[in-house]
Structure formats: structure tokens, C-alpha cells
Amino acid sequence: MENTGRVGLLGATGAIGASIAAALRTAGRPWRAIGRPAGHSSKALEAMVGDDPLAEIATWNPQDANSVAAAAAGLQTAVYLVGVPYDRFELHPRLMETTLAGLAAAGVQQLILVGTVYPYGRAQTTPVTEAHPREPHTFKGRMRLAQENLVLDAHGRNGLSTLVLRLPDFYGPRVTNSFLDGVFTGAARGTRAQMIGPIDVPHEYVFVPDVGPVVETLTRTQAAFGRVLHLAGAGTITQREIATQAYALAGREPKLMVAGKTMLRALGLFNPIMRELVEMHYLQTDPVVLDDSALRVLIGPVRKTSYEDGIRLAFEAARTAAALAPANALA
């Protein structure tokens, strides 16, 4: 029997959360957007839920197990989407420990962690299957590995089934926390795009609107739990090719400013986030490309938007945003 109970999005207000919310809405599923109680997060929760009669809002403090339990009460499935500042990755396992305690107290039956390629470390094969060794050589990779291990170890305890779904880098309309966002914004505004190089190495990117339907399907697929699965992008493409296509849609020649590892180190002297990018720079030179054949065997064909269509949709969203922006924001 399929699981069709209420789904809670923990840390709902990001791009992936919006994609999953859209898929749940389309499927007519009851769901709950869970986020921080104040400021931008609160407004984003309200905007996400809109007038969906099957949706509701809950607020939480992910550092408090009692708060997690209260926010998760009545959920069948929790989807974990919590981000942390790029210079605070030690929070990932800490928050997961608290979350697992709260979910157990609330009697939640399923947990899906939407994860990253960081726990693999350097790719030893191309493409990378779920059987690839997890040998991270970076602090961020070790913290993500510890987070994953907590989730996988929790499977079968306290009535909870768990799943880790790993994604590559992502992009899409209004996805501002993507490395590619500057390309679409630059193309739309006619300004220079800031990029992290090298930009001629083939990479894999998943189109964010494609993620939601997969997660919604997995919430109803009991055989998916107790394991790790990949969702790959629509093949590989270089950053330069993305920029060329985006600027062409604007009728412009690409204007790019590319920062390599040396420049990141220099910028990191003044900017802590840039400093944190240095240790992950290996993913620019030696990207991890995922094999998601196991996912497709399990749930059937997976819709993957072509790069041509995805770049067009992301550019059109950036052009609309640029047209609505105040004139002084374009200076």
C-alpha cells in the first residue's frame, strides 16, 4: 500500500522546498511547511502555502527536540531540507541528532534527507553510483557524512524508515543559491557574470523543478527506504556553454569574470564565505557526476528538463526579475 499521509518539509523555504511543495500540491497531497517563526522565513512560508487548502504552516527551532516534535506532530513523512551557513557546517550533524529525537517523539514514520555529493570526496569512478566509497577529504564532506550516517543508522528504529537522496549542483528559475544564478542575472541585466572556474569542465546540474516530483513519488515508495539513491541531471554541460546560451537569449555577448582557486584564496582574506569555497574547489576541477539508474529502476522514468529548456526558463525568470527591480539596483 502506498504511503499518502501528510508530508512535512523541514526547512521548507528554499528552492528545493518550493519544488517539492509544488509537486505535493499537484498531487493533491496534504503537506506542511515548517520553518523559522520570524522574519523572511515566516513570510516565505506564507507565500509558499498560499491558498492551498491541503497545506498548513508550522514553526520550529531545529535545535530543540521538543520544538521539532511539536512541528512534526501528525506527519507521516518528513523531508529534511535544512541549510546552514557555509562556514557553520558543524551544525549539520548536531541539528540532525535533534531532529531525529523530535521525529521519534512525534511518531513520524518516514524521513527523507535531501543530500549532496560532498560525502564522496574525490570521485574514483565516472559516473558515481551509490556503491562508491564515502571518503570525504574536506571538513564539509565529513560533516555531511556524519549527518548521513545518523539518518541511515536511524532506519528501523522507533518505527522510522529513512532514505538519503543525493543531488548534484542545481539551478533553475529564481534559484538564487545556485552558483549559476549570477550567469542568468548577468545575462538579463547586461552586466558581468561572476563565476567560479575553471568554466570549461563538464559538470552536471539538476533542474530544481524536476526534483519535487521525484521526492513526492519517493514518499509513496516504501521500497526506497533504508538506502541511498541518486537523482542525476540531464547529462553534463560546461559553465561556459550555459553562459553562452543565456547571454545569447538576451542578444548579448557573454561578459564573464571568472575566479579560480587562487583568487578565491585572496578574496577569502576578507570574505569568510569565499574562504569556505576554497576547500570545495575540487568539485570545479574534478566534478562528481552521478549515476541514477537505481532510482529509475525503482520508480520508472524520471522527467529531466533539457539544459536548453532549463537555461531558457531560468533566463526568463531572471529577465522578469530584472524588469521589476528598482532602477538603482541595476547600477
List keywords for this structure.
single chain, 331 residues, alpha/beta, Rossmann fold, seven-stranded parallel beta sheet, 12 strands, globular, disordered C terminus
Structure write-up:
The chain is of the alpha/beta class and 331 residues long. It folds into two domains: 191 residues, 3-Layer(aba) Sandwich (Rossmann fold), CATH 3.40.50; 104 residues. Helices cover 41% and strands 16% of the residues. The protein is built from 13 helices and twelve strands. Strands 3-2-1-4-5-6-10 form a seven-stranded parallel beta sheet, sandwiched between helices. A three-stranded mixed beta sheet has the order 7-9-11. Strand 4, helix 4 and strand 5 form a beta-alpha-beta unit. Helix 4 runs parallel beside helix 5. It is globular, with a radius of gyration of 20 Å. InterPro entries: Epimerase_deHydtase (IPR001509), Lipid_A_modif_metabolic_enz (IPR050177), NAD(P)-bd_dom_sf (IPR036291). This is NAD-dependent epimerase/dehydratase family protein.
Brief sketch in words of this structure:
This protein is of the alpha/beta class and about 325 residues long. The protein has 13 helices and twelve strands.
Give me the secondary-structure topology.
Layout: E1 7-10, H1 15-27, E2 31-35, H2 39-49, E3 55-59, H3 65-72, E4 77-80, H4 91-106, E5 110-115, H5 139-153, E6 161-166, E7 169-171, H6 181-189, E8 193-196, E9 203-207, H7 211-219, E10 227-230, E11 236-237, H8 239-249, E12 256-259, H9 261-268, H10 272-277, H11 282-285, H12 293-299, H13 307-324
Parallel strand pairs: 1-2, 1-4, 2-3, 4-5, 5-6, 6-10, 7-9, 8-12
Antiparallel strand pairs: 9-11
Helix pairs in contact: 1-7, 3-4, 4-5, 6-8, 6-13, 8-13
Organism: Paraburkholderia kururiensis
Domain NAD-dependent epimerase/dehydratase: 9-212
Pfam family, one: Epimerase
